[in-house]
Design goal:
alpha/beta
Length: 248
Amino acid sequence: MNPDAPYLSVVVASRNDGYASGMLRRIQVCVDSFVEQLERFECPSELILVDWNPPEGRGLWDALRWPKLLRRCTVRLITVPPKLHARLPFADRLPILIHRARNVGIRRARGEFILPTSPDILLSDELAEWFGQRQLEPRNMYRVARRDVPEKALEFDLREQRLNYCRDHVHHVNERSASYHVKGLPELFTNASGDFTLLSRDMYFRLNGIPEEREFHSMHFDSVFCYMAHAAGATEVELTDPLRIYHV
């Protein structure tokens, strides 16, 4: 595989600050799961982890176990230091600016397609296998209903056990029906859009990335971005069972 020309770039932004009941464990499971699946299903890819404003002495590079002997997936870590974070709006109130962090990864992504997502998201094997088939269309915006599962999913060390548990313990599905409906606008699938909005690199660059925290915090910016992509000509495609994402 040419590491400078992967098919898929997965962008995950986080920091090692103990957020959300043991964030470091969530990040480690995310890294292990994504890399194992992308390798297994032979998807030329890269996982970009953006370490935003790391607490002193707790950067992700030394805190995580990194996979070795990879053939299909490369792993890249980008650190945004505290001095850069301090210059930005909301820096005095928020330790991580998620949309800006994701844009750091999107701007540096080398894949033909880009998936910004969260460090507590897991892919079903069927979805990872579909990535490996390389059937994505550059004019499409791919969406999928996020399925929420209990934190116990993190206790399983083996991917198969973890995904079996997730499949059998979904307690909520973020379906299209809960999306925003604005009179005069198309009814797009905006529910939980920040966890899976897959577009071509060309489309992300055409839109200058996702909206960032400036005058306002990032609530609902993911939904706004879906309308931006639609206005730019992207056709929404909803992926259905067994193509799933699970949110711990």
